[in-house]
Amino acid sequence: MQQVAVVTFDGFNELDSFIASALINRCRKDGLEAFITTPTPVITSMNGVEVTGQRPMEFVTEADVVLIGSGVKTRDVVADDHLISRLPLDPARQLIGAQCSGALVLAKLGLLGSMPACTDIKTRPFVEAAGVTVLDVPFHTEGNIATAGGCLASQYLGTWVITRTLGDEAARGVLDYVAPVGENQETVDRALRAVHTGEAALS
Length: 203
Fold this sequence. Notes:
The chain is of the alpha/beta class. The protein has eight helices and nine strands. The strands form two sheets. The chain has a seven-stranded mixed beta sheet with strand order 5-2-1-6-7-9-8, sandwiched between helices. The protein has a two-stranded antiparallel sheet with strand order 3-4. α7 crosses α8.
């Protein structure tokens, strides 16, 4: 079983963490499973929804994939050296993705280097202030690192994880199932196009 840590902080955006984890967890039978991974046992979303974490933060060291979620307190997260120290990520052996303001966490960890990133409109100036070029696209990846910008781009982050671990056909099956009725092919094609365009952008 390949394991995915969806790192979710207090003040998180529900769309960011739950869409990606829900898509990935439709692949359990194929050996891929996601867990909401939190720094404290219970966290509260930006809209006041309390969630009990499925795994503690230390789970990131054993996960095959780590996705950093977004939220209204991400700047507080990157300012907390102790909290950041609990994320010893390794792109040599892990797939690492970030949703919206999660790009700030990757920048703080020094994982982006000269790689450009995607993020949301409100976070953009802070990511740029960290020395990272922000792209006007929803998804970008280089090697084992990916970023997505815009809440609903979390479907692209989930699709990326599935394609990289199980292949395009597995992603097609998941996307076809969750697509709005009558928009199946359009939804599948859009997600896969976003992911493969993001992979090929600088190749």
